[in-house]
Fold this protein.
Amino acid sequence: MRTLPMTFSLLALAMIGCGEAPPTSPAEAGAAALRKVGASSSQSELLDAVRQISARFHSESQATKHGYVSTVDCVSSPAGGMGVHWLNGSLVDPVFDPLHPENVLYAPGPNGIPKLVAVEYIVINAGQPAPTFGGQAFDVGGTPVPVPHWSLHVWLWKDNPSGLFAAFNPDVSCP
């Protein structure tokens, strides 16, 4: 069973050099998101840890190296877009491990180059209590998983006017 390490600093040290440098600093991206949701210090620490481990996925080659596969289709709705989901199917299970998101999401960037915008968690409902991300409740369902589940988007790498944990981002569009 995967568990959340007690100290995030050890994780950060282990991850240094795992991927290409992100186009924006994690501190800047996180500070804006935290101001919008008024995140607690424990949620703030969790967001920082997820930002540190997900920074490597600014490189799609790193996503591939870590078992993520593109679903190809860019998801959008009248409420906004999500982008293209890259799923690591081996992570879809009844365990919520914030340091191993089941999806990483990319949206079309300048010149059509995909940019990392968010992570998404999918937790199979096997009768356990509903997961929360530092107090933030997950949505019931919401993804095309054919069994009862919870999901949660976390917009760490692109500001979302609808909120840090909203499913769709009005600033993301698909070609």
Observations:
- Residues 8-154 form one domain.
- The chain has four helices and eight strands.
- The mean pLDDT is 81.
- Residues 41-54 form the longest helix (14 residues).
